[in-house]
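Q: Entry one of two.
A:
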Amino acid sequence: MGKKQIIECVPNFSEGRNMNILKSIADAIRSVEGVKLLDVDPGKATNRTVVTFVGEPQDVVDAAFEAIKRSSELIDMSGHTGEHPRMGATDVCPLIPIANITMDEVVEWAHKLGERVGRELGLSGYYYENAATSAERKNLASIRAGEYEGMAKKIVDPEWKPDFGPATFNPQYGATAIGARDFLIAYNVNLNTTSVRRANSVAFDVREKGRIKREGNPITGAIIRDENGDPVRDPGMCKSVKAIGWFIAEYGLAQISMNLTNIAETNLHEAFEACRKSANTRGLRVTGSELVGLVPKQVMVDAGKYFLQAQERSTGIPDEELIRIAVKSMGLDELGEFDIRKKVIEYRMEDEDARPLINMSLSKFANETASESVAPGGGSVSAYVGALGGALATMVANLSSHKRGYDDRWAYFSDWADTGQAIQNRLQQLVDEDTDSFNAIIAAVRMAKGSDEEKRARQKAMIEATKGAVIVPFNVMQEALKIFDVAEAMIKEGNPNSISDAGVAVLCARAAIRGAFLNVQINCQDIDDATFTDTHLSQAQEIADQAAKREEELIRIVKMSMK
């Protein structure tokens, strides 16, 4: 079987105040099996709610259809007011590729959704971004120009004939934009002013399209135009960033409201810093910021590292700590709690039961190991011991980075801490993967074996599961071997007060490798594939030999330094 295709849908509904309506829309989404609702983020001032859910394409499209249908029944646009531009009850409904799916495939799903909305619900709308049917309709701002109030006239204009649904205005619903796009971050930066004009000045400095050039006075001067008569612009500081300034009465402050449409070109912390620099030159101050919807974990990790590097501090710390640094540095908790389990997409998607062992307390893990159950066993314990070794080596690197007198080498030790943290993270994953591989064998044993076809399927599952039970501890050996590099650097160059800790890291790495090797050896006995077993056994033996030699050398250095 191929890997699951996963897409995300982030519809924006023109309702942010009536919680009963929002609950009903959320329930419509939840009613589709296979879809996971990740976030419902209402805004009172904007009178708009951003909803995020994920799943396989057909399930997501079905859930989006049900949400659009429910919004058309419950939201009346004829009386809608709010700070955010809008043109319909379901204002926009973008589909976003997340895993194992191309943008072209997502475009097809967007078109299927639009066609169904037009045909079954009689609602009108347009395709935008990658799903657009023409260059003029690619930009959402162009489609939404004139907003709801201008839609009655626009929708009957032949140039703006809807891509789906009737070319007649529905005063209760308005119109919808359905699109396919890359991951977008909706991000607002808070200013210590109530002036929309001043907030816009910062927005124009930051956004990619910048501001229109004028002769003399930058506000009242005549617009400078090119040979085609189009306005000439001074480009802004950040590529792939759209921005405007607005005042939010709920918060009593002005914000720069941004869409980061390509985080490879401008990341979150880069947009924040651009706003901060612009605000400072205008006598303003950035006081914090606000994320609307969810954000990828790597974006927050990168931000945390950026701010630590600016302080010349080690970045080799756990991801959650890096995210905490990012939250505090950008003031993401100024307007309310920033719960990473709700705001970071990977944590929000994470199955609470996906990593049961590594998420246990130390005592519970020990008790679970001691119980009558055969798993977790030696393989998981070996991986955990290795993770502890990686953690110790990382600790010494971090302590060395911060040691007085080592200031000119902080980046060197930070790099080693990053390496050690990555090793530790991978070994923690392998704690649960080892038990998962054992459970896969048990599941294969329990498979039906009545017909010849069932017997073949069971035999194939047994072979694959048993090979997995070799590959996982072999991976533990490979990962634990890397600990010696970090530990050696710390023993020879790190904080001398922590040399014994680096020595314990060496011993943990060796124990992890020896323990995992035993698992490789015993599970190879059940595999009738000489090429597979010979390869893994010979390579595992090489790793074990290297580990024994390096342990002896490094522990000797540790003991000599302690005399």
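Q: Entry two of two.
A:
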Amino acid sequence: MSKLWAMFFLSILLVSVMNFYAEVREPDRVDIAEIHEHIRESVKVQGVLTSYVRDPYSDGSDRIDLLLEDEYNVVEIRWTETGMRQSGRDDGLPATLPPIGTMVEGVGEVVEWNGKIWIQSQGAGAITYDARWVPDVHLLSLTDLSHSPSTYDGDLITLTGYAGGVIEANITRQTFSLMDSPSYSNADHIISTSMEGRLTESLESGSKIIVTGWLRWDERSFRWQLQTHATQIEVLWAAGAKRLSWSSDAVYWSYDVGALVTLEGTSANLSDGWWVMGPGDAGQNKLCLLPAPGDQDGITQDWTGRLVWEEQKVQLCLDHGYDAEFTNPTGAIGEETVPLGDVVRDPNAYRNQTLNFEGWSTDPISPDYNKGYFADGPDYFTRSTRVRMVLEGARAEWLEADTMVRINATVIWDTADARLILQVHAITLVGPTPNPVTLSWTEGFDDWQWDINKRVKISGIATNGSDGTLWIAREGSAIGERLCLLGDGSELAAQTAAGAQPIDWVGRLTTEENVADREVKLCLDRR
């Protein structure tokens, strides 16, 4: 009997030891090239940190996406609950990750979904690195680097220079030039700089900055490139608006598209739109003007705004409505409105209250549907907050995407879905209806599907199929490119009057399903 009891206690001890080992043992370290063999397993990988993006979807989550490179293999690590939230920063996320080019280790579960493989890491200790793995920083000038760039291949370097273009805010990935002169024509040395992460404010061309990054050879473009992160850019002097001269050719103005510019002239509201008129004949010196609310005709002053390319007018325009102080102007426009961001940051303070908001609808909403999203910016790149809204009452017209509206709504907390909802009692259009989205025949279904239910415009020739179906055909296409057309009965007559010339057709992009043939096709609905 004593032997049986001894064997029993020994088995209990062995099971305990095995369970303890399973809990405390470290995951196996694998090469990045072999992670596809360890799906749903916990592994450890080691590689060079090539890029990272904090809060990739701008939803306030404690998440960082990292890319690690091991020779010619790259793996993505999606790191959540990083424990890196701290107070004292606008974004709540300090720059505690090592610089680009540092060797780091990541631990997590290998996930495969929809053909993509990544490592899902969780917790403050999932990403680690040793201080010895951080590369030495070389303080260089652009001249020093140009003499022998291969000497610093793969090293961390710090350069001081001038931004060769506008470095936009709230853009996750972008490329700009770092120059040794604020003027491109006077610069002797220029290096391409690839930046990950988002800046809180745009930096104008000519701003003097210090950039710390990882020097690498860009094999695709056959050039040296500095890879950096937004947290590794220090602004020494921020440039202001660039003054344009009427004596310069418009071709030179095109180099400043996207920049903040100033131009002296007189406003003119003509039959073909607003203009800034310069000296000389009215037809020679003028620039298209996108006016701000309150602009008046016949005002002579310095006009400051973003120089943009207006696709509908097919020309350069001065966007005078651009406000350099606000990326998302919701809450700063109109009276007695509440900024949407305030409600999202402290929902309990506004719960069950009926308030006024001004913002934009993000998607088209049909008359027979009452749900959509309300945002504080007109497009994906400018908005930072988006909330579900439910419309009360009946409507006869579509609410188009990206339309500026004013709503009276009650803030409700949906306990079932654990999210805020705006119960909209009244909605008023504040801004104009957006212009139709122009479809290009060179894009096709993969691009067009993102514009389903939106008002669109496409150029083509209306034809009648053998089965009576109307089509819009691409002019001169030898492969029969065409788009289904749901017309109002006037299309063929209009095409006959136009002859063989293509017509710009405007309507709503919809889908039509043929159950018998198991077919779904895109159509332009003009009814």
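A: Comment on entry two: Helices lie at 2-24, 142-147, 250-253, 340-345, 347-350, 445-448, 491-498. The two ends are 92 Å apart (CA to CA).
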